[in-house]
C-alpha cells in the first residue's frame, strides 16, 4: 500500500513526466500514443524495442527520449562486424601497472540506444542479455554494476528487410514492450516538413529532467497498488497464451512481471495510485505480442501475434469494480475493490 510520502512524490513528479512528454512530442510529430508507451516503459524500469520500416523516425524517437533527460547516453550502431566486447567492454593488459585494466563498453550508460539491433550477428546481440536483465556486466570473472536508471532503447527493421537477423527469443523476452511508430498522418507529415525542413529539432532539444528525478519517479511507480484480482487477471492473460492453438510459444513468467510493472507505470501516468484492469488491457498487445511465436498453420492463415492477443483479451474474464469501496486511510481516498468477473466488451 502506498504511503503519504509516496503519493505526494507521485503527484509532484507528474509535472516532470509532462515536461519530458512535451519535449519528445516536439520532435516526433503526431505520435502521442508512441511517446506515452515509451515513457511508460522508462518509468517501469523496462527496455523498449522500436520496430518499423526505415525512415519513420525510430532513431529520432530514441534520441529525443534520451536527450530530454540529463543523463549519460551512449549509442551503438549494430553492424555485422560488431563484436560483443564493443558492447560490454574488454580487459586490456597495462604494461606499466603490470595488471589488466577494464575498459568499459558502450553499455555503461544510463540510456543505451541500440540502432538497428537486428543487423548484428546473434552472438553480438546476446552480449546485451546479462545487462538488460541483471543490470550488470561480467568480464573475466569480475562483475561491474551498470548505472541507475538503466534503459536500452533498440530499433530494428522488420525481418523481411535485407541484411537482418531475427532476434533470439531470449533477447525479445527481455524487452518490456515493442512499439511500431508507423507512417504519420498527412497533417502530421505537413507539420514535419515545416519543423524538420530547416534545422532538426533534435539540435535544439535541451534536457528537461534529471536522471535523479526519473529515479525518484521510478520509486513512486513501484509503490503503486495493484489489487489481487488485477494481478490474477494479468496471470490469466499470460497463461492463455501458453495454451492457445495458434501459438507454439507462449509468454514467459517474465512477461507477467513486465505486464504488471507497465500497468503500474500507466496508472502513475494517469495520476492514479492504483492500477486498473484497463491498464493491463491497454498494454497487453505491446508487452506480450513480440514474445509469442505463431504456429505454421497460423502463419499460413496470416494470423499475427497481435491478433491472437486481441482474441485472448476478448475471451478472458475481466475483474469488475464493485461497491463497496475500500477506504484508503492515509489520504482519505478510496481504492476500488474488484470482485465479480465479467467478459471484456469489445
TrEMBL record:
InterPro entries: ATPase_AAA-3, CbbQ/NirQ/NorQ/GpvN, ChlI/MoxR_AAA_lid, P-loop_NTPase. Pfam families: AAA_3, AAA_lid_2. Residues 47-176 form the ATPase AAA-3 domain. Residues 240-312 form the ChlI/MoxR AAA lid domain. Residues 316-346 are annotated as: Disordered. Transmembrane segments: none annotated. This is MoxR family ATPase. The lineage of its organism: Bacteria, Bacillati, Actinomycetota, Actinomycetes, Kitasatosporales.
Amino acid at each position: 500500500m502506498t504511503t503519504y510520502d509516496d503519493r505526494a512524490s507521485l503527484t509532484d513528479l507528474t509535472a516532470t513526466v509532462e515536461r519530458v512528454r512535451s519535449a519528445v512530442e516536439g520532435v516526433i510529430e503526431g505520435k502521442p500514443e508512441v511517446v506515452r508507451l515509451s515513457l511508460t516503459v522508462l518509468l517501469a524500469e523496462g527496455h523498449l524495442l522500436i520496430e518499423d520500416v526505415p525512415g519513420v523516425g525510430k532513431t529520432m524517437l530514441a534520441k529525443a527520449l534520451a536527450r530530454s533527460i540529463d543523463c549519460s547516453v551512449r549509442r551503438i550502431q549494430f553492424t555485422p562486424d560488431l563484436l560483443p566486447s564493443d558492447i560490454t567492454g574488454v580487459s586490456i593488459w597495462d604494461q606499466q601497472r603490470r595488471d589488466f585494466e577494464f575498459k568499459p563498453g558502450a553499455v555503461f550508460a544510463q540510456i543505451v540506444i541500440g540502432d538497428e539491433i537486428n543487423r548484428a550477428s546473434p552472438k553480438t546481440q546476446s552480449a546485451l542479455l546479462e545487462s538488460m536483465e541483471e543490470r550488470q556486466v561480467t568480464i573475466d570473472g569480475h562483475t561491474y554494476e551498470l548505472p541507475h536508471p538503466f534503459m536500452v532503447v533498440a530499433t530494428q527493421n522488420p525481418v523481411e528487410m535485407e541484411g537482418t537477423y531475427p532476434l533470439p527469443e531470449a533477447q525479445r523476452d527481455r524487452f518490456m514492450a515493442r512499439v511500431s511508430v508507423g507512417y504519420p498522418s498527412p497533417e502530421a507529415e505537413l507539420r514535419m516538413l515545416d519543423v524538420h525542413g530547416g534545422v532538426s529539432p533534435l539540435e535544439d532539444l535541451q534536457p528537461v529532467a534529471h536522471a535523479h528525478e526519473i529515479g525518484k519517479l521510478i520509486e513512486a511507480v513501484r509503490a503503486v497498488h495493484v489489487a489481487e484480482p488485477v494481478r490474477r487477471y494479468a496471470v490469466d492473460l499470460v497463461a492463455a497464451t501458453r495454451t492457445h492453438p495458434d501459438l507454439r510459444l507462449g509468454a514467459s513468467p517474465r512477461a507477467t512481471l513486465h505486464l504488471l510493472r507497465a500497468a503500474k507505470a500507466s496508472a502513475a501516468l494517469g495520476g492514479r495510485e492504483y492500477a486498473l484492469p484497463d491498464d493491463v488491457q491497454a498494454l497487453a498487445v505491446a508487452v506480450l505480442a513480440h514474445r509469442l511465436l505463431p504456429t505454421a498453420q497460423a502463419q499460413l492463415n496470416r494470423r499475427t501475434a497481435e491478433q491472437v492477443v486481441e482474441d485472448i483479451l476478448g475471451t478472458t474474464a475481466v475483474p469488475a469494480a464493485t461497491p463497496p469501496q475500500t477506504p484508503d486511510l492515509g489520504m482519505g481516498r478510496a481504492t476500488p475493490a474488484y470482485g465479480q468477473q465479467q467478459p471484456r466488451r469489445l
